[in-house]
């Protein structure tokens, strides 16, 4: 069963740069990265609405919505920022370099989240192996940028 989630993660990973490239082109076509990001979320929202109408899961109660942590509400803002920033950066630095830099940012943020156990997640202490792993990725960015 774990292999299925590995496959899903790899699939999600392949979709990210494709989404970035498509959205960057959309930003050029529309003449504004914010319009491209809005279009991205409108189409994605419509697709999720169709899914919800087909599957018909129970709606969350008002009480449950009011109990959500702040992070439950700012996730969409983070997603919109991520998509918008990718649309702006991709035409200027390329999707490949952008993707590598995004991974560096994700790793650094993930180390901080793990080390401090943020967002109610279990703590995973920062150690030399994790730091060296991120440094190796940073060296990879320098090599990538050079060639």
Automatic annotation (TrEMBL):
InterPro entries for the chain: YdcZ
Top-level taxon of the source organism: Bacteria
GO annotations of cellular component type: plasma membrane
The keyword Transmembrane is annotated on this UniProt entry: yes
Keywords: Membrane, Transmembrane, Transmembrane helix
Chain segments annotated as transmembrane: 36-55, 67-87, 93-113, 125-144
Pfam families assigned: DMT_YdcZ
Segment forming the signal sequence: none
Listed name of the protein: Transporter family-2 protein
Species of provenance: Deinococcus yavapaiensis KR-236
Lineage of source species: Bacteria, Thermotogati, Deinococcota, Deinococci, Deinococcales
